[in-house]
Amino acid sequence: MAQVFTRRDLFSAAGALGAGILTRSSGFAQPAAAGPASPDPMSYVNPEFRAALGPLAKMMEPVQSLNASSLMSLRKGMNVSDNPAPKPPVTERTIPGPAGAPAVRVYVAGNSPGSSKPAVLHMHGGGYVIGSASGSRREIQNLSTAFDCVAISVDYRLAPETAFPGSLEDNYAALRWMYTNAKELGIDMKRIAIKGESAGGGHAAALAIAARDRGEFPICLQVLIYPMLDDRTGSTRELPPYFGHYLWTPVSNRFGWSSLLGVAAGSAAVPPNSVPARVPDLKGLPPAFIGVGSIDLFAPEDIEYAQRLLAAGVAVELNVVPGAFHAFDGIVPEASLSRQFAQAWREALRRAFTQPS
Question: At the top level of CATH, which class does the domain 90-354 belong to?
Fold first, then answer.
């Protein structure tokens, strides 16, 4: 009988990942030990989060190596439905897709014809290869309730079946639909933010770049939660082994990026604008909130991206949570650091929705 994984079992409270892998080794050679033994990776984990890793490690044993074969098994065994609350209601809509591509499914909460509410376009995580917007229904309900906003999650096409730019164009189609139907949905077009976790954060960053370049639809804030931004991490860029030791590892990262790009992660040439960290010019992008755990595989690339945004004149709030691994806030949401993290990005979103335009 296939193992069934819930959304929290995997990565995030927003139905974000599901492709995480817990391994004993990062896949790179361990640095020479200063003493009799290398430091225990658990020593880098904040005490608030340690208890969760034991049960999680056992659960993740069947999926310790992400590749084409294990991906299919994981998809079949996953249950990403998050059983949304009764209110506010969530409606499923089918909207026009990119030119020459299939229609796109979206989930909508908080829409109110005739209103002028702020709005959030949400992109789920999953390493670019797993997950669905149906697992984000509770997330958009929470967003709608917390901010009295319209919240929409987009069911973009997954890699490797659809390589870049398919998913980007699906997300852009959802953004276009929000603007085109703003009156029907009750959206204030000056207050549309985008948000995503992990690969969803990477999708949000890529969408912000595309929206800037095309100049059609302004975005007031990009909320990037431990975003997946650089294909070179874990391929041509090695990190100390405590980065990405837990949950999302270098081997998983290589597979996810290679699936999206259609070329090996870390290749000298990748499709233009497919990797946010490789986009040379970040000027003119919307303000950003970037949050990540300090031992997340993505911590160095997220910090570097925040620095580059600042150098480009983009307002950035960077939140690095000490001793936190990937998706810590979904796995241990009751921890004080998780609550503080959620409060930080929520306050950033609240400011973006209330500041004068």
Answer: alpha beta
